[in-house]
Amino acid sequence: MLTLKSVDSQAKIFSQLPVHSYINPDIFEIEKKAIFDKYPKYLGHRLMAAEHGNYQVLDALNQSAVLVNNHGKINVLSNICRHRQALMLENKGSTSHVVCPLHRWTYSLDGKLEGAPYFKENPCLNLKSFPVEEIHGLIFKQTQKQPSKNMKDAMAFKQLNQLLNFESYKLHSIKIDHYNFNWKTFIEVYLEDYHVWAFHPGLNNIVNCDDLTWEFKSFSSIQKVPFREKDHSQSTPIYDHWKSKINEQSTDSKPPFGAIWLTIYPFFMIEWYPNVIVVSHLIPDDADHCRNIIEFYYPEETILFDQDYIAAQQAAYNETALEDKIICEKMHEGRRLLFKNKQEDMGPYHEPLEDGLKHFHQWYQTEMSSYL
């Protein structure tokens, strides 16, 4: 059972961020150099293109690139034709070649230009190929400033060894949520469980944050909360329905956990719930806007035979996402007003429910320190 620490312990707020960090566009520009450009960017999972010839246009790169399976090798190629710079592929599908619809320039699945109609000689303008690193099927765009091997380190939690295996899972769907608040506000809400009992009655009937545990690495953390077997006094119909579906699939034993949340700073997240893996990554657009690209993966058996479970799980997930959006909007608006009035304010951390928030703030301060 969680207990409150002393008042002195709760008052440790040295790593809190000033309100201008969330509002000032100049800070956002500094973040691009200090943080965004240093860390590998998540692009997608190889299950997006599971078979030879499968492709997925990448929203992570604003559809300017496509993830392609070329005989088992995952390539990430430019989706912009070298002739007249037109976008070529859309959404997802299967193809033997990448073909521009305007003039039929044709590229192989490794980006080589193989055909340019009516040109006497091949112009030899191949598609740009992005250097990527694959970790547990997760595809990251490499950066010279932060070797992607550090992403392996960030995931190297013992209890994730088996959970990172997507072998029996299939990609079901992808959605994008657009938000009108600073990206850090989203990550902060994701990294604290103090609000769950107050703002997530449905989620609170699935997970028991009284027994929350944390693990930390230099730029990552995991939160683990057990499954709440006994119904809580407060819940929602949507979560009650999903909980009934969970219990139907867990007749022999209770689920091993209610939820596990992995966060790799600055933007990457994986969530595990009973019979679902949710992979998401946040994309900051400016100081006041960001978007979250969310991928839902389920066991193949669930996709084939239990669409009701998928519908119930996604309805519950969306309910919590909407509640989190409201929290973030209220925080961003309050900070905006403080910034406008040239005022400053910050509150204490709750231990342990906000330990992840504190860890994120300390990481952020370290990354930004040499630029401010």
CATH superfamily of the largest domain: Naphthalene 1,2-dioxygenase Alpha Subunit, Chain A, domain 1
Arithmetic mean of pLDDT: 94
- Series of secondary-structure elements, N-terminal to C-terminal: HHHEEEEEEEEEEHEHHEEHEEEEHHH
The total of helices stands at 10
Q: Under the CATH scheme, which architecture of the largest domain would be assigned?
A: Alpha-Beta Complex
Strand order of the largest sheet: 11-17-16-15-14-13-12
CATH domain topology of the largest domain: Naphthalene 1,2-dioxygenase Alpha Subunit, Chain A, domain 1
Uncertain regions: pLDDT < 50 for 5+ in a row? 1-11
**Termini, distance in Å?**
41 Å
Helix fraction bin: 25-40%
Give the C-alpha Rg. 22 Å
Structural class by helix and strand composition = alpha+beta
Rough shape? globular
CATH class of the largest domain: Alpha Beta
Largest sheet: 7 strands, antiparallel
Strand coverage percent: 25-35%
**Strands, count:** 17
Q: How many individual domains?
A: 2
Folded structure, characterized:
The protein has 372 residues and is an alpha+beta fold. Helix content is 28%, strand content 26%. It has 10 helices and 17 strands. It has helices at 7-10, 20-23, 25-36, 149-155, 183-190, 196-199, 237-249, 300-305, 307-340, 355-368; strands at 41-45, 54-57, 65-70, 73-78, 92-94, 98-99, 106-107, 113-115, 132-135, 138-141, 169-179, 213-217, 220-225, 259-264, 268-273, 276-286, 289-299. Strands 11-17-16-15-14-13-12 form a 7-stranded antiparallel sheet, sandwiched between helices. The protein has a 4-stranded antiparallel sheet with strand order 4-3-2-5, with no helix packed on it. Helix 5 crosses helix 9 and helix 7 (237-249) crosses helix 9. The model is unreliable at 1-11 (pLDDT under 50).
